[in-house]
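Input (structure):
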């Protein structure tokens, strides 16, 4: 969205084209089957942080379990019931509950919908041009250098595209 020529500043989630899936390499992309994301921060022209409204269908997850070296994340549950899974175990989170994940906090997290209904949440995260994201349960890192994302094995070799 070109913010200089925008005539409306207010908009609704459904005004934003949804996206599905992830940029993960094939062996790990399945985790987000059933995830629908509206990148409302992008639509609003925000650059310093991202804001997404995400809906998880039953059986879907937000992402592979992960943690960031530089970026911070905040999540607010809008509707439904999800499981927050961290190194500490599983915790049910429901409408009105919030979570924060500071940069460098080495406790991988993700949300999983094990209920029979869809659930929605808002996620807010800082955007760093240089970042490493760790995935403790799988052989993957995400390395961002000057805003370019590369998925690698933990030994540093890139995944084939």
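Output (sequence):
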């Amino acid at each position: 969205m070109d913010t200089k020529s925008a005539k409306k500043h207010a908009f609704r989630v459904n005004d934003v084209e949804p996206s599905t899936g992830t940029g993960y390499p094939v062996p790990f992309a399945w985790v987000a089957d059933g995830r629908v994301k509206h990148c409302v921060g992008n639509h609003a022209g925000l650059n310093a942080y991202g804001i997404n409204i995400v809906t998880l269908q039953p059986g879907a997850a937000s992402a592979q379990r992960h943690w960031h070296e530089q970026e911070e994340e905040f999540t607010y549950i809008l509707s439904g019931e999800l499981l927050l899974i961290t190194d500490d175990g599983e915790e049910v989170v429901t409408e009105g509950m919030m979570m924060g994940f500071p940069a460098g906090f080495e406790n991988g997290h993700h949300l999983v919908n094990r209920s029979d209904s869809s659930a929605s949440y808002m996620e807010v995260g800082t955007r760093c041009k240089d970042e490493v994201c760790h995935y403790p349960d799988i052989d993957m890192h995400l390395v961002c250098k000057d805003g370019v994302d590369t998925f690698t094995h933990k030994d540093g070799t890139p995944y084939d595209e």
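Notes: The chain has one domain: 13-128. The first strand starts at residue 18 and ends at 20.
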